[in-house]
Amino acid sequence: MSSAMRHFLPMLAVPLLGGCIVGTVAKTAVDVATLPVKAVSAGVDAATTSQSEADEKRGRELRKADEKRARDEREAAKKAADRPF
Q1: What does the DSSP 8-state code read for residue 1?
Q2: Residues near 57 by Cβ (< 8 Å), separated by ≥ 6?
Q3: N or C: which end of the chain has fewer CB within 10 A?
């Protein structure tokens, strides 16, 4: 390669790399601007309960109560069957 080509090729790459730097700076600026919003929304989400989460919790409580009632009934029936008359 000639000396002129060795100096010319890197100069062609400069405009291409400039776009990468601008894009990175812009992305960083957007990330910095949206970070407080994301932090607040995560805190609110952790502090509040949605209706579907409340429904799921209530459903678990009802299932556990029903399982306990069924278990108690089985134990009572077993004791009644084991008891002599």
Answers
A1: -
A2: 49
A3: C
Token pair recorded at residue 56: 């799921």
Whole domain around residue 64: which residue ranges?
A: 52-85
Question: Is residue 43 domain-shared with residue 64, that is, in the same domain?
Answer: no
The total number of structural domains that make up the chain: 2
Same domain (yes/no): 9, 25: yes
Residue type, 44: V
The dihedral region occupied by 70, where left means phi > 0, alpha psi between -120 and 50, and beta the remainder, is alpha
If asked whether residues 21 and 61 sit together in one domain, one would say: no
